[in-house]
């Protein structure tokens, strides 16, 4: 009887250790599957998919003109970005005063009086025009983000491109022509991650 | 303490820690002998007469949420560029590194950089969505997420723009350690391994990048390599034991250990799995660097090896010559710190500082070295090396790589000038 008890105890212990081993193996290999997520429907996804890609993927229908953009800019944007997109106090939209000449006798003064964020500009530094549409629509105006219509966003994008001499005064921007606007930074932009250029990341739309 | 007892390990008065221990014991033994006061009328004496008021008074009651001592009111975050108008777009709150010790930053003093203000998000209405190049697009409620197995990691977060003054200003800015280096903090973060959630969706073969988005006003978003998210990324809910502060991303944030702080998306609510980066506004603009060769460099995720002496540091005053402990912080976005060297003589000679454990990868590491200041003007420097052999550059070396308006990713050696009257000031050497 004692022997049988011992045998059963051993079987029990062995069983426990097998269970223990299984649990720890799943732990080590990271195969734990908790699966507490719920399915996400297409309509739920499309409501929140606001990211625009360099190839124009996800750009909405609609259009906007430089002319309309100028009106909106004066009303909604110029207080922060300045009349010409250079005065600040918010980030510059055009030009660059960052690269001060060494011959400039007031160089030290100029750098010290300038908020670091103002030495760069959207027009000179961003490699893709599609990013302007994306950022304006999700984040601007700063005090009332996501309040612009798609047409208004196209118009403001057009006006910012115009301020940078990248489109002419009569330009109308839409989902077809926006990805084709070549930004000055496109050829200069390199990414530290995996040593690629901005051009390497442009995947043509299928 | 007699100087003759000390063994020096480098110029400028850097002391061998072991000799300090021996010398210190001798000093204590000598000073512990006190004269015994004569006793008069012992029967009517109250011991209270010899004690301060707080030892003779019943203390106050506790509170439901503890606060720092009333004598530590000076311990505050400081707004970077307080002169900048509210509509300048970004606020940076700096951690008072020189008033803290150890490696953990108190939650209320964690630095914060907010591009779109601080939202107050209702956790019952906040969900995490994962979609894109996946077999099963999923959403997770907060209640469900909190049931997942959690991991805990001590990790620093540093803003890409930390120490921008030293990068930009041609003349060294006379700032405190907080002013110059306060955009770094370190906490224990608890949350779900991001890979766990991503793998549950069944990642597609073309999946290479993830556009991570926050639920704040500007829907802050960055393009993040999928490999990082599958490696050591955390969806964090707890910071130093308590739920995240609103300033740090309540109800949850992404944590990308060792990478520029802007990629640790606060208020995270959406992961869009894709095949190429989106070049979001912050991928494209503020978080890029102008290189001296005319290129613009983006996606420069790693925060490189760096260190700073926090005591003594800028704007402090050494009241008298004599013993001080030089101490500071070192970190690297690539891994562990392996060595910190300190110089107390303008960089002529260097001695290794003691690294205080635990030495954790991608966390702050505390270092110290004893120092005898002889009252003469000198310069203190610290130079960190990480486990991959990456060593901090000098300022000139750093500046050579970048064009003049670049201020992100500055990790050059910090030097503090000590004047003969004890004033400590930021200086370039």
- Head-to-tail CA distance between termini of chain A: 76 Å
CATH domain topology of the largest domain in chain B: Sulfite Oxidase, Chain A, domain 2
How many domains would you count in the coordinates of chain B? 2
Query: For this entry, what is the oligomeric state of its chains?
Result: heterodimer
What low-confidence regions of chain A span 5 or more consecutive residues with pLDDT below 50?
16-29, 112-117
Q: How large a portion of the residues of chain A is in β-strands, by DSSP E?
A: 5-15%
Query: What is the top-level CATH class of the domain at 60-190 in chain A?
Result: Mainly Alpha
Q: Structural class, from helix and strand content of chain B?
A: alpha+beta
Number of helices, where a helix is a run of at least 4 consecutive DSSP H or I residues of chain A: 7
**String of helices and strands of chain A:** HEHEHHHHHEEE
Outline the structure in words.
The complex is a heterodimer of chains A (206) and B (429). In chain A, 42% of the residues lie in helices and 6% in strands. Chain A contains 7 helices and 5 strands. In chain A, strands 2-3 form a two-stranded antiparallel sheet. Chain A has a two-stranded antiparallel ribbon with strand order 4-5. The longest helix of chain A has 28 residues, at 2-29. The N and C termini of chain A lie far apart (76 Å). Mean pLDDT of chain A is 82; it is low at 16-29 and 112-117. With 429 residues, chain B is an alpha+beta fold. Chain B folds into 2 domains: 98-166 and 183-294, Oxidoreductase, molybdopterin-binding domain (Sulfite Oxidase, Chain A, domain 2); 306-427, Sandwich (Immunoglobulin-like), CATH 2.60.40.650. Helix content of chain B is 12%, strand content 30%. Chain B has 8 helices and 26 strands. The relative contact order of chain B is 0.15. Residues 25-32 of chain B have low confidence and may be disordered. Chains A and B meet through strand 1, helix 2, helix 4, helix 6 and strand 4 of A and strand 6, strand 7, helix 5, strand 15 and helix 7 of B. Strand 4 of chain A pairs parallel with strand 17 (296-298) of chain B, so a sheet runs across the interface.
């Amino acid at each position: 009887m004692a022997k049988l008890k011992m045998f059963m105890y051993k079987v029990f212990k062995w069983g426990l250790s097998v269970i223990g081993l299984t649990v720890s193996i799943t732990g080590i290999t990271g195969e734990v599957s908790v699966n507490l997520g719920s399915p996400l429907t297409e309509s739920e996804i499309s409501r929140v998919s606001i990211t625009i890609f360099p190839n124009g993927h996800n750009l909405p229908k609609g259009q906007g003109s430089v002319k309309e953009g100028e009106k909106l800019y004066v009303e909604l944007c110029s207080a922060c970005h300045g009349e010409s997109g250079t005065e600040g106090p918010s980030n510059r939209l055009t030009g660059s005063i960052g690269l001060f000449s060494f011959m400039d006798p007031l160089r030290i003064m100029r750098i010290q009086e300038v908020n670091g964020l103002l030495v760069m500009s959207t027009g000179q530094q961003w490699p893709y025009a599609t990013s302007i549409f994306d950022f304006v629509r999700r984040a601007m105006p700063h005090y009332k983000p996501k309040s612009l219509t798609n047409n208004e966003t196209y118009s403001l994008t057009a006006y910012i491109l115009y301020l940078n001499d990248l489109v002419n005064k009569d330009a109308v921007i839409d989902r077809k022509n926006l990805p084709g606007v070549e930004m000055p930074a496109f050829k200069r932009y390199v990414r530290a991650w995996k040593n690629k250029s901005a051009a390497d990341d442009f995947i043509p739309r299928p | 303490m007699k100087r003759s007892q000390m063994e020096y390990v480098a110029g400028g008065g850097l002391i061998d820690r072991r000799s300090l221990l021996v010398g210190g014991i001798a000093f204590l033994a000598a000073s512990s002998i006190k004269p015994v006061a004569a006793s008069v009328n012992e029967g009517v004496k109250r011991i209270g007469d010899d004690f301060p008021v707080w030892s003779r008074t019943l203390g106050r009651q506790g509170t439901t949420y503890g606060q720092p001592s009333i004598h530590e009111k000076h311990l505050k975050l400081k707004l970077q560029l307080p002169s900048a108008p509210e509509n300048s777009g970004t606020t940076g709150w700096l951690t008072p590194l020189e008033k803290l010790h150890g490696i953990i930053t108190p939650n209320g003093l964690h630095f914060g950089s907010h591009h779109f203000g601080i939202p107050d998000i209702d956790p019952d209405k906040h969900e995490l969505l994962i979609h894109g190049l996946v077999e099963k697009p999923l959403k997770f409620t907060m209640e469900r997420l909190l049931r997942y197995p959690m991991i805990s990691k001590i990790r620093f977060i540093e803003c890409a723009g930390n120490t921008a003054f030293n990068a930009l200003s041609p003349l060294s800015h006379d700032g405190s350690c907080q002013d110059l280096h306060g955009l770094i903090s370190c906490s224990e973060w608890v949350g779900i391994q991001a890979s766990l959630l991503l793998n549950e969706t069944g990642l597609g073969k073309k999946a290479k990048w993830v556009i991570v988005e926050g639920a704040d006003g500007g829907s802050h978003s960055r393009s993040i390599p999928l490999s990082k998210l599958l490696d050591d990324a955390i969806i964090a809910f707890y910071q130093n034991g308590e739920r995240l502060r609103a300033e740090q991303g309540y109800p949850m944030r992404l944590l990308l250990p060792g990478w520029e702080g802007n990629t640790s998306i606060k208020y995270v609510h959406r992961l869009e799995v894709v095949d190429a980066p989106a070049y979001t506004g912050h991928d494209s603009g503020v978080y890029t660097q102008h290189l001296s060769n005319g290129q613009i460099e983006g996606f420069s995720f790693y925060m490189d090896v760096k260190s700073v002496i926090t005591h003594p540091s800028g704007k402090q005053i050494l009241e008298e010559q004599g013993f001080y402990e030089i101490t500071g912080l070192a970190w690297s976005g690539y891994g562990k710190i392996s060595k910190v060297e300190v110089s107390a003589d303008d960089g002529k000679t260097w001695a290794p500082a003691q690294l205080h454990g635990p030495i954790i990868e991608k966390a702050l590491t505390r270092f110290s070295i004893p120092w005898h200041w002889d009252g003469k003007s000198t310069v203190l420097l610290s130079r960190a090396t990480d486990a991959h052999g990456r060593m901090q550059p000098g300022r000139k070396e750093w500046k050579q790589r970048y064009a003049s308006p670049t201020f992100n990713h500055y990790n050059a050696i910090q030097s503090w000038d000590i004047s003969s009257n004890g004033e400590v000031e930021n200086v370039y050497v």
